[in-house]
Amino acid sequence: MNKPDKTYSKAPWRAKLYEVIYEADTPMGKLFDIVLLIVIVFSIILVMLESIAHLNAKYYEEFYIAEWAITIFFSVEYILRIITIHKPKKYIFSFYGIVDFLSTIPSYIAYFAGGNNMWLAIRALRLLRVFRILKVTRYIGESNRLIGALKNSRAKIIVFLYAVIIICIIMGTVMYLVEGPEHGYTSIPLSIYWCIVTLTTVGFGDIHPVTPLGQFIASFIMIIGYGVIAVPTGIVSAEISKSDRNTVHTNTQVCPVCHESTHTDHAGFCHNCGNKLNEK
Amino acid sequence: MNKPDKTYSKAPWRAKLYEVIYEADTPMGKLFDIVLLIVIVFSIILVMLESIAHLNAKYYEEFYIAEWAITIFFSVEYILRIITIHKPKKYIFSFYGIVDFLSTIPSYIAYFAGGNNMWLAIRALRLLRVFRILKVTRYIGESNRLIGALKNSRAKIIVFLYAVIIICIIMGTVMYLVEGPEHGYTSIPLSIYWCIVTLTTVGFGDIHPVTPLGQFIASFIMIIGYGVIAVPTGIVSAEISKSDRNTVHTNTQVCPVCHESTHTDHAGFCHNCGNKLNEK
Amino acid sequence: MNKPDKTYSKAPWRAKLYEVIYEADTPMGKLFDIVLLIVIVFSIILVMLESIAHLNAKYYEEFYIAEWAITIFFSVEYILRIITIHKPKKYIFSFYGIVDFLSTIPSYIAYFAGGNNMWLAIRALRLLRVFRILKVTRYIGESNRLIGALKNSRAKIIVFLYAVIIICIIMGTVMYLVEGPEHGYTSIPLSIYWCIVTLTTVGFGDIHPVTPLGQFIASFIMIIGYGVIAVPTGIVSAEISKSDRNTVHTNTQVCPVCHESTHTDHAGFCHNCGNKLNEK
Amino acid sequence: MNKPDKTYSKAPWRAKLYEVIYEADTPMGKLFDIVLLIVIVFSIILVMLESIAHLNAKYYEEFYIAEWAITIFFSVEYILRIITIHKPKKYIFSFYGIVDFLSTIPSYIAYFAGGNNMWLAIRALRLLRVFRILKVTRYIGESNRLIGALKNSRAKIIVFLYAVIIICIIMGTVMYLVEGPEHGYTSIPLSIYWCIVTLTTVGFGDIHPVTPLGQFIASFIMIIGYGVIAVPTGIVSAEISKSDRNTVHTNTQVCPVCHESTHTDHAGFCHNCGNKLNEK
């Protein structure tokens, strides 16, 4: 996040507003974030309720007014964000800048061009705005560690997903041949879709094997899927276990006499030779 | 659990009763707990059987009598608990106090106010009473360790659940747009519900994608769900592994000078005060 | 397995037969085991095929003859096992003795008393006989380790299953109240069954929530089930990890000079003081 | 992969072509691999699209031409591979040789003998050709480690799968007896199939228990399946964790005398020859 420039001196209200909008360590900044969070959550709920036909028919007017109130609120906020920041261009083309823009624009387009659902549903992206606010919570550390564990096992996960997709393409083709269009497997892509549904143990049941051979092969796919789920789990499990282990080594002191370096966190003396350790 | 006060001397039968009802280390106390356990399990089975229409029609009278027998038994027990305990108020508003109360009250309300199912089903809460009795079993240690492992990974699990919900809201909205009301995705909340059904690999099949694009996106959601399940597993797995490791106590030395006890496995000197540790 | 007594001297053919039937380290014993394995697998397949109506109608005679051939073979084997063993009673009432008996008796009962499916299907228990033969394979070690890991985590698993059942009973009751008989949740036990189907992420779809509130609660149950699966996995994972770690310590040598004991498997000298280790 | 013989001197174009076709470290070789990869992926997509009835009806001619273009490209490539390699026989009967052959032959057979779907779908095997090309990517190391982890836990996984199959056969037979043909469990093999569907938590819902006893047993199977999935996960998890640990190389010391390099973390002397190790 860009720190405010010292050269705000010309317009001190901009520096003030910047602090309120972009930061969260002043009471006003915190209040702003909480209000924003409530409005975002409220707007998401509104988008959902609008999609329910009988509610939309009944409360059309209320929804319309609320939607415009939120749109105007977000528009004002967006403009203020551009005005107060030092490098507006960088903000406008940043991830959150685009999300903020997409949060307001659909309503205007729907108003001028005649809205269809497609445009209005983009408003669901407002949800992403929540992340900016949550950035300041204490969970950010944990989420970074989880993302770190996933990133470290990225290569393994890609290999695994690649294997899953290959299995699904091959077994899907086999099922297409075995069951055929007369049992619902109308094309190879559909059979592959079915195979993914089965391998991932979802099992909708919209399509299912009917012939004994098809059921035998399906059993085979299911047992593979049941066993193969162990692989990503094992990968992430080992990775988190490792990252947990690594963070335990918080004491980096080395004994000045015997160079022993594996001391417990609150050690004051070397456990190997008994000499005093240096102050941390 | 509150220990009985020494001042029960005025009414020794209260102290005696307290011991029977609240404790389990005397033969009578144990017997009471076993009887209570049986009555609770019996009452739960009764509530279940009552809900089966044709059984309720056939054995209405038997169920009615059994229900009142249990209600009176629980009422007497509840009153005795209040009488014998030193601080009745604390008990009444404690978790188990409320559960005990809710175990008896629905029958009375149903009797006086004309019962509907809603009230009677609250009796299923009687099940929670089982926990108090099981408290004394040898499994309490294990369950504490499991709860401990879950508590330690709470932050990670909240982050994970938050990510799952965000994914479901976004993908649910996308599916609503792609499939639309004509294929069963009648509203965004319903699409989100479907997305949760799919991501968690439950897959009821009441709603399922019909268009090729919808099936493609569904495949994507399923594979995410299939891979993402690795994350909570990895978290808990690493946590349990750690808690197991910690309880292994490979070095049981205690420093003879400062009584520090957390030494590394090959420590010869106390890391806290520098004195020599005793030979193993 | 009982070792043959030295007192078989009176009937050397019994000792010989014992060796063939009960042991697998002579060529004849091995051959016997392989033949038996084939007959067992063949008989299982036969039981399965008989259950397929149109095959049974077509090949009734062939199945009948094959079934009697197998029954007589197993009967002879059973009698020989009793004759050759030193303590027949102990065998007869052992687990495998009972399984052997149940493998032959259904055909006789069906013949004399007029068979129904129930009796004939008991023959599927013949499958258990396979275990005796597999006892000699190299997989027995691994299976013992897996069973060991499961046994060690027994207490944790019981606590976990108990929690799952409690959750299912409570949430099942709630769903019964929310959805009610008109949406398929006709009784509390059925709702509990549905809850187990959902929590374990099986999701048949024969019953599924229809009301928005029911779908919301169902989502909640699914996410619990999705997260909770991490617990048994974590338990077993940590247990296997531990058992693997423990078996790594194959070198139990202790240095005669400095008493250091954590040597690598092929160590000849102490890594701590450089003195020669004792021969293994 | 066979390295080119020095005796290509007679036909230098063969050595050149060999380099382009079989290797990937020259610009031309890399280009060839990328072109091949694109053609393979394109041909797979073509096979899929052909299987969609309405697309095939509409673009029959385009598909026909594209298919023959690919077939001829693969045929030429196959012939060039045979010509340029030093030991053609070894290639022809190698895994990739057979895959390459099966990638081209179905089109010819379909042309001469009148094609049916069965033959044409073999072309989906072209997918396997992708592996040869991906061999050179950086993911090969990770995939080898994953395969290694799976290989190491092979014995455990076989024991596990054997147990799953035994459970499914026994519980499938039980369900056949309990539910019977009138509720869809028309034969024992079908019941076993249902049991696999349930135990692996797939749950299509095409067959599902209707009687209370059947639902009770099904609940039991589901909870087993839910718990048992922990076993393969635990196995692979522990294995990956171990393989990660082994590659961490915490002690990188090499003995200056005997070049032994597997020392424990705090070793001061070589455990193999007893000489002092260099200071870290």
TrEMBL record, chains A, B, C, D:
Key word Membrane present: yes
Organism encoding this protein: Gillisia lutea
Transmembrane segments: 34-57, 63-80, 92-112, 157-178, 184-204, 216-236
Tree of life domain: Bacteria
Protein known as: Ion transporter
Membrane topology: Multi-pass membrane protein
PANTHER family per record: POTASSIUM VOLTAGE-GATED CHANNEL PROTEIN SHAB, VOLTAGE-GATED POTASSIUM CHANNEL
Record's subcellular location: Membrane
